[in-house]
Automatic annotation (TrEMBL):
Gene3D superfamilies: alpha/beta hydrolase. It comes from Pedobacter mendelii. Residues 2-27 form the YqhI domain. This is Carboxymethylenebutenolidase. It holds the Pfam family YqhI. SUPFAM superfamilies: alpha/beta-Hydrolases. It comes from the Bacteria. Residues 72-280 form the Dienelactone hydrolase domain.
Length: 283
């Protein structure tokens, strides 16, 4: 796939570019409208293309917990028959709590943690099946209220039955940015992992008490532009952190439902590093 096409799709999914305008630009890059229509399914997430995460060693259920203005919906997954476990808040991309992020939540649980995948769109009726609608609704969330709802999720996990009170978070894309925000805003957080997420205001970095891990795709120029300033601020504040940049891979390289951007080798390496960090900080 031409990198210019992947970059265009990234711009479309992270801006106010309309679908009509996106298809016009895609047709120009592809050479025709017919080819653009053929390419589109390769760019969009396909949940049918990835196997559902299954494990006999975990349980999962839909739950709610109190938000600041009503209940927040979430998927809760945990290992069977185990206690005194660390907990992980899983933060979705800008499409909402979709099947891919539910699978990620279950995957965290299978590694020996209590995992909570929160639906940030709960105040707006929950995640829709239409991803374009999901992106539209994400833009309508009140940023401060959304942050407070995630902080409520962390508090829920600190008190959850079977947990040991230690809590971390991991987020992807939009959720990666939220993971960084939680690190800034929750001094009790043990660890925060951000996959290709926007960096926080460098003036706030000194507030971070958690261990930080960041995973970036080497081709992701949009997000990577903020790395140097964040890196310098983390060093200046003596924060415990690691930054990993995976050469030759794109934004969303961990998402196995995105065929043109998923990179299995980078995803496995980043996941292994993430779980190792959780085990060292949350056990």
């Amino acid at each position: 796939m031409d990198q210019k096409i992947i970059n265009l799709y990234d711009k479309y999914t992270h801006s106010q570019l309309s679908r009509k305008e996106f298809m016009k630009k895609l047709a120009i890059l592809a050479g025709s409208t017919a080819l653009a229509v053929t390419i589109l399914p390769l760019l969009e997430n396909s949940y049918a293309s990835a196997s559902e995460f299954l494990s006999d060693d975990i349980t999962s259920e839909e739950i709610t917990f109190p938000g600041i203005e009503g209940d927040m919906r979430a998927i809760l997954a945990k290992p069977k028959g185990k206690k005194n476990l660390g907990s992980v808040l899983v933060i979705h991309e800008n499409r909402g709590l979709n099947p891919h992020i539910i699978d990620v939540t279950k995957g965290v649980a299978a590694e020996g943690f209590i995992a909570l995948g929160v639906d940030a769109l709960s105040p707006l009726g929950g995640t829709p099946t239409d991803e374009d609608k999901g992106r539209e609704l994400i833009g309508k969330l009140d940023p401060e209220k959304n942050l407070q709802n995630y902080l409520k999720g962390l508090e829920y996990l600190r008190k959850i039955k079977g947990g040991n009170g230690k809590v971390g978070c991991v987020g992807f894309c939009w959720g990666g940015g939220m993971s960084n925000k939680l690190a800034v805003n929750d001094p009790k957080l043990q660890v925060a992992v951000a996959y290709y997420g926007a960096q926080p205001n460098v003036a706030d970095v000194a507030k971070i008490k958690a261990s930080i891990m960041m995973h970036y795709g080497g081709l992701d120029e949009r997000i990577n532009a903020g790395i140097p300033a964040y890196d310098a601020a983390l060093k200046a504040a003596s924060v415990d952190y690691k930054i990993f940049i995976y050469d030759g891979v794109n934004h969303a390289f961990n998402n196995n439902t995105s065929p043109t951007r998923y990179n299995e080798a980078a995803a496995k390496l980043a996941w292994g590093r993430t779980i190792d960090l959780f085990k060292s900080k949350l056990s």
